[in-house]
Design brief:
alpha/beta, 2 domains, D-Maltodextrin-Binding Protein, domain 2, six-stranded mixed sheet
Length: about 350
């Protein structure tokens, strides 16, 4: 009889041990599922993973539908929208309302007339910088020509050479190969100790078009996300607006904060305002976007109204469920616009 009791106790003990082991595995699995991924932040009940990606990669993020939320050039997104796959994203808000400036030595203020008879080196061949520059020069009756070699410009025209990036603009200026350079913030301010003269293309744009500025880069989201979780969308947009205050409060430390998160850009405090960050709703900037795209891409390329996100009714409740969301943007001003989110992840 004693042997039977002992066996029963052994079997009971084994059963308890097995039960505890299974429970531990189950609890661990649940814990793994509940863990917030490294480098992420909770916004509106959803897990958002912000990521700086190469500028050359940003269009492919939309074309491949790998990202849920994207900051990218407005004209590039419009081009993708006009293709079959692009309609899976909508413009939610503006981000940068123009960050282009012409710089040079001498007085701190330049005028368009100062460009006549001068050599200008510029970023953005075939893209927004070239299109905006040519628009304002044409409107002001200033002739321009593309540089095919050395030599000075004709007396009443601007001789323009296009280069790959702001570093190449600086190199051409330093070498005396150009009189002025066109590039974007924050590099404009970073170079201002040597090249303090400045002319805002945003100011020229306003003079010749009547628009306050142009939506150079915008915030886009997947249409499926906008439809399925509008409560999250409303909270996310507000978070982007709060970022503007956060940047101002942290402008002296912003470079170190963002470089710790993967940025390679220096953000001088004086450059912050000239990065022209504005979170304006798609409805508020629709006309400006269409005018801008008409200039840079042609009237036939302006997308229909489906390109713009318009919330319906009152702000809905936050669902707080769903897959993790990738939020991608290039370095520079777009990373600055997402700074608070990036820093908290």
């Amino acid at each position: 009889m004693k042997k039977i009791v002992t066996k029963r106790k052994i079997f009971s003990l084994i059963a308890v041990v097995l039960l505890l082991a299974v429970s531990a595995v189950f609890i661990t699995a649940c814990d793994d599922e509940d863990k917030v991924p490294e480098g992420s932040i909770q916004i509106g009940g959803r897990t958002v993973i912000p990521e700086i990606v190469a500028e050359t990669q940003i269009s492919s993020e939309m074309a491949s539908e790998n990202a849920d939320i994207i900051i990218m050039p407005t004209n590039a997104a419009a081009t993708l929208y006009n293709k079959e796959g692009g309609k899976k994203y909508k413009l939610v808000s503006s981000v940068t309302m123009g960050i282009l400036y012409i710089i040079g030595k001498g007085d701190a203020t330049l005028t368009a007339e100062d460009l006549k008879g001068k050599r200008l080196v510029s970023i953005g061949a075939g893209n927004v910088p070239q299109k905006v520059l040519e628009k304002v020069l044409t409107a002001k009756d200033i002739a321009f020509e593309s540089a095919t070699g050395g030599g000075s410009a004709a007396e009443d025209s601007v001789k323009i050479t296009y280069v790959a990036n702001g570093v190449a603009v600086r190199a051409a200026l330093d070498a005396g190969e150009a009189d002025y350079g066109l590039l974007g913030e924050p590099a404009v301010t970073a170079f201002s100790s040597v090249y303090p003269a400045r002319l805002s293309l945003q100011d020229l744009w306003m003079e010749v078009t009547g628009d306050d500025s142009y939506p150079q880069a915008s915030l886009f989201m997947k249409a499926s996300l906008l439809e399925s979780d509008p409560g999250f969308v409303a909270v996310f947009i507000e978070e982007m607006r709060l970022n503007l205050t956060w940047i101002e409060e942290n402008k002296t430390e912003i470079t170190a904060i963002l470089q710790a998160k993967g940025s390679a850009t220096t953000f001088p405090p004086a450059s912050i305002a000239r990065c022209n960050l504005q979170i304006n709703s798609a409805a508020d900037i629709k006309d400006a976007v269409k005018n801008f795209l008409t200039v840079v891409s042609g009237a036939a390329s302006v997308p229909d109204d489906g390109f713009f996100y318009v919330p319906v009714g009152t702000t809905p409740a936050i669902k707080g469920i769903g897959a993790n969301l990738r939020f991608v943007f290039p370095d520079g001003a777009p990373a600055l616009a997402a700074g608070k989110i990036l820093a908290a992840a």
